[in-house]
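tool_call: predict_structure(chain=1)
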Amino acid sequence: MPYPLAVISPSFGIKSETFIHRHMIGLLPGKTAIVVHNNEDTDATFPHLPNLIIHPSRKDWRWFCNGFLFASGWSNLSPVQRRVLNFLKEHGTKIILSEYLDYSLKWIDVARKQGILFFAHAHGYDVSKTLRDPAMRRQYLRLDEADGIITMSEVSRQRLIELGLNSHKIHVIPYGIDVQDQCPKHETKDVVYCLAVGRMVGKKAPLNTLKAFQQAFIHNSKLRLDYIGEGELYPEAVQFVRHYTLEPFVKLHGAQPNSVVQKYMKNADIFIQHSITDPETGDEEGLPVAILEAMSGG
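tool_result:
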């Protein structure tokens, strides 16, 4: 059985990357081959789809860290690239969707070698933080060899055009979610449930969210906050909640699967989220899926 579409991603199983999971199972259901660099969650697999988990050896690791710097060309494929190429040949792949622009640079030559249509998908850091690096800005020009570049916003599209990429190859396709037939009604309750969902990293400013809740709570003790997400700032979030003795009113749930997120979405009255440019790295969000899901849930 041929699998005409292949989705290539640097990782799978990261609970916050629901958009990548949707691409893998929903773009061409049952006819998609999966290639991932590393599986972050051993329980997250595709038993019904052909999948290749690369797990590069130490010998190949240097290439994976610096692969976009080696001389391009069909005869220069690395052992990892050849492995992926053979996998794609075996499953009759005709189109590749590669997640994240910087990671996509590693697979352009594979697609050209086999005559496979190649599309690179931008998401967030790869059209913000990464563009601060002059070397990466130069390497990004190789993306003109792709058949198309997909991004989630007009802002990021304009950045890529200003970089020098062909505007006709860059397409804006916002993320999609399942939208309910009717917006659920929220009944008035004695307690007002607030919900925040997102990785606790600089660009989502989790401490700003907690500070905002703490200030609001001073004026309205009926407020409660459920915060779903983990990340490098999680310890600071725990410390903040303890310092202001908010434990009875704020619950930090850590990372949770989307099914748990949806459960809290249905019960929440208010969705809150900060979204900023990380002042240290320049990292920005693309189009936060949690905001779209909150809108769908009313």
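agent: The chain is about 35% helix and 20% strand. Proceeding to next step.
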